[in-house]
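User: Predict the structure for this protein chain, please.
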Amino acid sequence: MKIAVAQFNPTVGNVDGNVDGMVGILNSIADESVDLVVFPELVLTGYPPRDLLSFNWFMDQVGAGVERLLEASRGCPGTGILFGSPRPNSKRFGKGISNAALLIQNGIILHEQSKWLLPTYDVFDELRYFDTVDPDDYRVVEFAGEKLGISICEDAWNDPDFEETQIYEHNPIQHLCEQGATLQINITASPYNLRKASNRFSRNSFIAKKIGRASCRERV
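Assistant: Here is the predicted structure, written as C-alpha cells:
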C-alpha cells in the first residue's frame, strides 16, 4: 500500500480554510497513484476546538466540510482519505459528539472510528467535550488488502510494557490487534514540546515491534 502522510497544521475554528488546505494537498498528489492519504486528528477544526463544539453553527460548518471532502474524494478515484473531525453520535446520554477518524473513498464514508481514551491532564480536557467510544464499535476495517487498525492519539499511549504509569483500563491497540489488524495507523494532534518527535518515534516503534505489525503515525 502506498501511503501519503499529509503533515498539515490547521487553524482552530477555520473549517473552510482547513478544507481548502486539505483539498490543495489532495490535488498536489493526484498523479502519484496513492492508495491512502492520512491527515491528523481533528484536522477539519484544528486542535483543540474546545467550546466551539457547543455551537450548532460550528458543527454545521463541520458537516459541510465533511461533505466538501467527500466531493473532493470523487476527484481522487481509488484513493482513500483518512482524517480527523468531530462527529455527532447517537448516544442517549453524554455530549453527543465524538472525536473521530473518518476513512472516505470515492464520495463514500467507508469507516468511522471514534477515540477511546480521552485525556484530561496537562493542557488536555477532551472528556469535557467528547464522548468515548463503545468498545464494540472500536473495530478494524478492510482496505486495499489490509485490515486497518485506526486509532487516535491517546489510544496508542497505554501499552503496559512501555508506559511507566497507566491511567486507563483499556489498551485500544491491543484491542485492534486481537481483531487481526495488519496495519496500525494512529492520527495525532498535540502541542509541541522538546523531544516530542523522538518520544513519539520511540513509542510507536516499540509498539510496532511488540505486535509485529507496521505502524504509520500522523501528527501535527
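Strands lie at 3-5, 36-38, 80-88, 97-105, 108-114, 141-143, 146-152, 183-187, 214-218.
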